[in-house]
Every structure is written in C-alpha cells, then in structure tokens.
Design a protein that fits this description.
Strand order of the largest sheet: 6-5-8-9
CATH superfamily of the largest domain: Immunoglobulins
CATH class of the largest domain: Mainly Beta
CATH topology of the largest domain: Immunoglobulin-like
Distance between the termini: 143 Å
Radius of gyration: 48 Å
Organism: Sinocyclocheilus grahami (Dianchi golden-line fish)
Structural class: mainly beta
Number of helices: 0
Number of strands: 30
Helix content: under 10%
CATH architecture of the largest domain: Sandwich
Strand content: over 45%
Protein name: Fibronectin type-III domain-containing protein
Length: about 375
C-alpha cells in the first residue's frame, strides 16, 4: 500500500499547517494459499500461491529443518518450479512477496516430501532347491517400504515388497538370468531404482537321458537333452551292487565311459552346472538304468556220457543280468553243436566218435553277448575219454 505522510505541530493551543506530504509504501502482504505438487521422477516441486497486495514479484524457497535454503525460484506470476530438490526429505516451502524496497515476512508455509533416495548395496543369494532369491540392501532415506523387481532375460517378471531391508522373491523360473533392482517408496512417490544386479537361477533339469552299450568293450555312450541354463555336465553311473561309481564330463549333450566292469547294473544320472560360482548344480529329473555285458562264466566242467554221444557241461553262474547261457562245442573241422540253458548246466548231444571238440560257455543278456569262457578241449574216442 502507498501512504501520504505529513507532520503538524501542536502547542496545546494552536496547530500548525501540515508539512509537505511524503509518500511511503508498506511491505507487500504475505502470499496465501501456498500449494506444492511434486514430480516424483525429477524431484521437482510445482509451487502455486494467491497473489498478494503490493507485490512486484515472488520468490519461493525450500528449506530443511535447520532453515538452510536448498532450492529457490522467482516468478512475476503466482507459480514457479523448485528443481533439483534433494531426495528423501521433508521440506518447508515458503513464498516471499517483494517490491522495490521490502519483502513480505514469509510466514505461511507448505510442505513437500521428496521421493525416496536410491537403495544401495543390493545383494542376492539363491536357494538352489526352491529357486527362491533372498535380496538384501541398505536403507534409502525417505523410504517407508521397498519394492524389489526381478526380470529375466526371457521377459519373465516377478517381485516382492517389504518395509525392512530384505525380501524373498519366489517362483524364479529355472535356467534364466535375472536383473534385480530395488526401489524405495513413501506412499506418494517411487524413488529411483537401484543399480541392477544379476542373478542366475538354478539350471533346469536335464531330460531325455539315453544310454547305449558297446557289449564288446563294455563302453557306455550317455546322451541327454540339456536343461536350460546348464553349461557343463557330469554323467554318473552308480552301481546297484556296491559303491562303484563311474563318471564322465562334457560341455555338450553326450559323453562316453569306457571299460566298465562286466555284470553290473547301473543307475544313470546327469548333473548340469550353470554359471560358475553363481548358480547351483541340478540333476536329471528322471533316472535310467544300464546293464553291462554279463561276466565270463567260470569253473567250466565237461563230462562225457559213454554210449550216448553226449557231453554234460556245468559252470559257475556269471555276474550280471543273464537271460540264458549258450554252450558251444566246435570240432576241428568247424562243425558246431550247441545247447542253451537258463541254469548252470547243459547237455550237448550228437557228438561224433573220434573227434576233438573245443567246449565253451557264453552268458547272454537281452542286449549283449558276453565274452566266452575258457575253452575245455575234449576227445571222443571209442570210450569217450576226456583230456
């Protein structure tokens, strides 16, 4: 407001004429109805107010609890923006009206709560069995709760939230690389995401395991369909008959185990390994079995039956899965006589007098012919003498 000021003298009886008037201007009135609206992503506050009498312009200020000015903006109108406000703080906002000589008192105040700061020191640990990721971080200024997001390289998304600085993310899909971020929340604003960290979930189970055996050498070729996320593999054969274990390693989808013992029944599993030091091994979801060729029959005995042209052959049972045994008698002319038996003895008939025969026993399985036994040589003379 503008005021005319004059001075008169009064001696108790008379009053002088007023002096020449001078003009003075009062300080602008305090701006009223101050409001703030925060842009969370930039921590910029839009400040508005009602025009005040006597003002030529306005200055909006944001101060902390120590009355330290952190940001300000000037306007000839009734709004301006406070930019680059610090994160995670509750600030007082005042608007001061000014003219050429005086400023208003800045008494009315508004409050702005800025977006939370960025969480730091994010770390993740994986439970290999459940594929649950445990996430931890340091608290963020201004956050009342936190949101944790995980997104895989294949687009799968999951999350968890908590009011404290740790959270478990369930249901991670196997064999994927995840990017994990943490954001602070204050009920109005979401703060900036933390620096992302990478977590590899446990590899998927290997499937389609197959085994083929070279019966002659007892060498097994193991093949499988790799589970997603596995980079290397270990195929293991565990014997049912004892502690024997055999294995082979591969970066592909097959490997070979040679010179296996005869007569063994094996359980086969394939373990996959992901990123070294960052994930967990995973075994095959289903198991398959493998039987090596039966062992060589031992303790072969041959006895001749006089007058019947028959040789009775017996032996000790072979180790392994034996379907039956084949006994073979071959004379020096290459003529062959055989008999089969599911027990440990067999009679070969039709022997010819005056011949020498090489007699051997071979164990047979469903898939393999074992190695033949030591040869027993017999001679069929007039009296069928054995030598």
């Amino acid at each position: 407001m503008n005021y005319n000021v004059t001075v008169t003298k009064n001696d108790g009886q008379c009053r002088s004429l007023p002096s020449t008037p001078i003009q003075i201007q009062s300080a602008p009135c305090d701006p009223q109805n101050i409001t703030t609206v925060l842009q969370c992503d930039t921590n910029t506050a839009n400040v508005t107010w009602a025009a005040s009498a006597g003002a030529n312009g306005y200055t909006a200020m944001a101060t902390d609890v120590q009355q330290q000015r952190l940001a300000s903006c000037h306007s000839m109108g009734t709004s301006c923006q406070l930019t680059s406000l610090p994160c995670g703080m509750r600030l007082n906002v005042t608007v001061q009206a000014d003219d050429t000589t005086c400023n208003s008192s800045s008494q009315p105040k508004a409050v702005v709560v800025t977006a939370p700061c960025m969480p730091t020191n994010v770390a993740a640990a994986l439970n290999c069995t459940s594929n649950i990721a445990s996430i931890t971080w340091h608290s963020a200024l201004g956050a009342t709760w936190y949101l944790v997001k995980a997104e895989s390289s294949q687009g799968y998304k999951t999350s968890c939230n908590n009011t404290v600085t740790h959270c478990d993310i369930p249901n991670l899909q196997c064999g994927q690389e995840y990017s994990i971020t943490v954001m602070g929340m204050n009920g109005v604003c979401m703060g900036p995401a933390s620096q992302p960290i990478t977590l590899f979930s446990a590899p998927c189970h290997n499937t389609g395991i197959q085994a083929s055996l070279d019966c002659r050498t007892n060498s097994a070729l193991i093949s499988w369909t790799p589970g997603n996320g596995s980079l290397s593999f270990n195929a293991t054969l565990q014997s049912f008959q004892g502690p024997q274990k055999h294995s082979c390693f591969s970066n592909g989808s097959s490997c070979n185990i040679s010179s296996l013992p005869c007569g063994q029944h094996y359980n086969i599993s394939v373990t996959g390994y992901g990123q070294v030091g960052r994930t967990c091994p995973t075994s095959s979801k289903t198991l398959v079995t493998l039987d090596t060729a039966p062992c060589v029959p031992t303790q072969v005995n041959v006895s001749l039956s006089c007058g019947s042209n028959t040789a009775s052959v017996s032996w000790a049972a072979s180790s392994g899965l034996v379907s039956y045994y084949t006994v073979t008698a071959v004379d020096d002319n290459g003529q062959t006589l055989t008999c089969n038996s599911s027990s440990t003895s067999c009679d070969i008939s039709g022997l010819v007098c005056g011949q020498v025969y090489n007699v051997s026993v071979t164990a047979m399985s469903v898939d393999c012919t074992g190695q033949r036994s030591e040869v027993r040589r017999i001679s069929t003379g007039k009296y069928f003498l054995s030598i």
